[in-house]
Each structure stands twice: as structure tokens, then as C-alpha cells.
Amino acid sequence: MANPTITSPGFRFLNALLWGNSVALSWVWGLGLFFSVQFTVEFGLTGLLTFLIPNCLGLFLFGAIADHIARRNTGSESLAVFFNGWSRPFRLVFFLYQIIALSLTIFALIRYGWQPLGLQPDLLYLPLTALIILAAGILFGEEFSIRRIKYSHAVFLAIILCCIAVIIAELGSPYLRGIHRPSLLPTHDLSFWGYVVPICIGFLVGPWLDLQQWQRAIQIRRENTSITASYAVGALIFGGVLLFHGILALWAMEGGAGKVIQKGIAGYPYAESLLTRIFSTDPVNPWLLGSYLVFLSACILTTLDSGYIALRWFFQSNASRSKNPIFALIPEKLITSPIPAFILCAVIAVTGAAIGIELEYFMIFFATFFVGYSALAIGRAFMNGPVNAIPQVKMFCIGSLAVVIFAYGYFLHQPVFQILGSLLPLGYVLWLMLKPLAGEDFITEGEELDQPATASVVPLTPVGTVLTPAPTGTHDITGHFEDKWFVHTFVATYADTNSVGNVYFGMYAMWVGKTRELFFNRVMPKFNLKETPFYILTRSFEHKFVRETREFETVSVKIRVAGHNRKFVTLEHEIYDSAGNQLGKGSQSLLFVSSTDYKMLDIPQDVVTAFLAYT
Fold this sequence. Notes:
The chain is an alpha+beta fold. It has helices spanning about 5, 10-25, 30-70, 80-85, 90-115, 120-145, 150-170, 175, 190-205, 210-220, 225-255, 275-280, 285-320, 325-330, 330-335, 340-355, 360-365, 370-380, 390-410, 415-435, 445-450, 505-525, 605-610; strands at about 260-265, 270, 480, 485-490, 535-545, 555-565, 570-575, 580-595. It has three domains: about 5-365, Up-down Bundle (Amino acid/polyamine transporter I); about 370-445, no CATH class; about 480-610, Hotdog Thioesterase (Thiol Ester Dehydrase, Chain A), CATH 3.10.129. The two termini are about 50 Å apart.
């Protein structure tokens, strides 16, 4: 019987609130937290709402659509199963998205929360500050799993609310006066829309490449809680945090804070550090400054710990499924640990802060480069068709072109190019999916080879047909190597045929098995079945019949190591006749167990060493 505390409506409602809060805090990353100040300073309350609404809407729509996808199949693992298959072509993009997002977040806290305090020397305090941020994110990421993070984020929300209450209490009624303040720049010209269009596009599709959101949606589904309700709560909480921060920027501008705004490259004003500069200026109110810095730190930390957990989940999942030989040579803990990725993010952030770049230089990737991938991912979630590949080179070129076009528009103050840079990937993805013969862009080289060069039906060989005789001469009866392929050649005889006179279908698998044993004997000549600590078992076997053959035909069976991960080895085989016609091909998966208790093992080092030269 199901546990009533888990399936009851009251529990699901509370769980939706907890997960909604975690969704919100994981989305309060450096871009949303600090660019909301920048856009509010430039365009007033209109700018704040223009930034906030698409951001919240994109977060909610992701949850609602993910919920719809999860409900297409029954079971708590339906969304996880969908993600495992659907995300495979986008693995590198998911990783890059996460790296840039985390780098941006660490950079933003250093650049706009710490550097305005003016602590000197930079050479000492900059790496120390980055180390503190990095260590805190790793610590909380190690301490809490995806199942428990909703509880730690509930505590963080309480801290954030306390900081907000202290700040509003200290400021009093002047806090709300800035709402009526006119914007610095007009909101009716093209410059405004040069930001609005990329913001709307980037935030509406942005969550689709965020591992943190996918991991949450999958876990929410596993806990029998509404993903839609959780993300609705998350969008509201997230909007509330950004609304507070934006109104705080309006209050600062009403008080004459414009004098601390500095101009940067291309003459743009950069106001992301406005509030830190105001609160740290004499006379310093320790309650205001302390509460604001704690508020920033809590918001950033809830993104970093989420990113740590999401990257660990991503690395572990890919390491367990990948057949790349490198995963068998590098220690598992190193492969699946997010710490190297976090160190890379910290190096990027510290370098950016040291040379004085701004948040917008990171933001450009989310408004251009990733837009096409996000749109393609959304389309591939609903379009029937091949889902094992995407045109990587084409997508990368379009994304890079969009970045360059947007950058030209930004630095030359030509908003038309900013709009074009954001729309270009969307237009290309629509063309890619709807153009004639679009399926050709979504197949792998292997699939192309799988298509027969001639008619798909191979006729039976007529009785009485004269076949190519076996060539005379000698060869190595134990097989030989041709590059990476191990080749065993023999002559098919009457015992291999059936009543029709063709080779019996089961013999092809027997031939492959015999060739495999000869291959093992060649690469592991010292293997002793009586003394071995491990056994090699066949996990799966598949074979595609291409054409048939008859007795007295010379047959060559080729076999090679196609790949392996920590647990499994994949072998490929091909079978040819003496005329070079392919008779069939396929693959098999091997696993390894202990010879004493039959428990599954990692690939033994003896096997790795023996196979390495032939991968």
C-alpha cells in the first residue's frame, strides 16, 4: 500500500512549494540578479518589468512543457527516460551552457559584490575571494543531494527574506519612491528593442539547456508532485526576488546614485555594482551593507550548489553510458567530480574580473549562441523522426555568426544587428527542421552506411550457380590482423548449409564466436581459464544479414574493439565473401564477472592492456 504521507494532496502541495523555492533560487544566477539592476537603471520600471516578465514566463513554460512530456508516458521515471534519449545529441552544449552560467555567476559576485568594496591589493584579495565562493559552492553541493536540496534552499530563502526585511526596514518609505522615477533612456526607440528582443528570446528558451532545471523536473516527477505547480511557484518567488532588487536600484537612482555609475567600453554605462557602491560609501550603515552582501551571497550560493549537483549527475550519467576508452583509464571519481569544472569556472571568472570585462560579455552567448540549440531541442522534443544526431558543424557556425553580429551591433550602437543576431539562430533552426529532406541533417555516418547501395531485397542464389572458388595458397589458420581488424578466413562447407543449399543463418553467429575466441587467444595468449580471477560473458549480440552465401565459398570474418567504458566492451564484426561482398555485420557487448562469486567487475586491467592497441 502506498504511503499516505507521500501521496496525499497536502504533502504534494507542500512539496510543490519546497521545489518551487528551489527552482527559483537555482535560477537567481548572476545574469538575472545583476542585469536586472542594469536594465532597471537604464529604462526604469518599464525596463524592470520587461526583463522580469519573460524571465518568469520562460521558467514557468519550461516546467509546464516538461510536465506535459512526462505525462506522455506513465511511471515516475517517464521524464528521466525521455531526457536520457533526447539529450544525447546535446551533451556538449549542456556542458558548455553550465560552464558559462557558473563562470558568469562567480564573476558577477566578485565583480559587483566584492570589487566595489575597494579592498587592496587586488592580487591578494581577488583569488582569496574566488576561493571562498568556490569552496562554499562545493561544500554545499557535497553536503546536499538533489533529494535534500529543497530543504537547504528553504533555509536559504528564510535568510534571503530576513535580509530583504532588514533592508526595507532600514530604508523606510523612500524605498518605494523610486518606482515613479523616469528612466535614463527612452523606451520607445530602437535601442530599447535592441535589448528587449534578445532578452525575450534568450529567457523564453533558456531553461531548456539548464541541467539544473532538468534535474529538478525529473526529481519532482519521481516524487509524484506536479512539475507545473512547482515551476509556477518558482516563477513567482523568482519574480519577487528580482522585483525587490530592481526597486532597490530605483531607490538608489532616486537618491542621486547616478554619479557612481561608470562608463565602460563603447561608452555604455554599467550599473551592476551600483548598490554595493552606495551601501559601502560613507557614512556606512552596517545593517544595510551587511544585509545586502548576505542577500547577494545567498542568492549566488543557491545557484552554485545546484550547479555542482547537476554537473555531478551529468558526469556520472555520461560516464556510465559512454563507450569511450578514456573512461576506463581515468579514475571514476575524477571523471564524475564537478570540482575540475568548478575550478575552470573560477579561473574564467577571476580572469574576467581582473581585466575588467562586464556581465554583458557573458550574456551575449545566452542571447545568441545557445538560442539555436535551445530552439532545436524544443522542436526535437515534439517532432517525430531521428533523434540520435544534430548537425553540429552547422549549428556551431550559425551560433558563432550570431555572436559576432550581435557583438558588432553592441559595440557600434546599432541595435538592428543585436536583434538580427538573436533572430538568426531561430530562423535557421526553423529552416533546418522544415526544409525538404531535413532528415539528412539528423543521421550519423553509421546510419548512412547502413543504407543499402542496391536493392534492399537480396535474391536467393539459384541452385547450380557456379560460385567463386576458394583461392589457392596458404594463410594463417589462427587469423591475422589488418590494421585494427582481426581477420579469420575459412571455407564454408556442406555442414554450414541448410536444406536449401544456402548457409544456415545460425552459422554466421557461430563464425563470429569462433573468430572472437581466436582474437582473444591472439591478444591474451597467457589467459588461463583455471587460474583467471575473472570471466568474460556476452551481454548482448546483434547481427544484420546483408546477403547470403553457399558452400565452398571463401568467407572472411573481421572483428575489432569498437569501444569500452568502465564496465563493458563493444566488439564490431563484419563478414565478407571472396569477391568482397559484405554478407553481414553487427556488434556484441561483453561484461566481466568475478570467477569466485560472479559479481560484476570493472574491466580488468589485463583486458584493458590487451585491447588498448586495437581500439
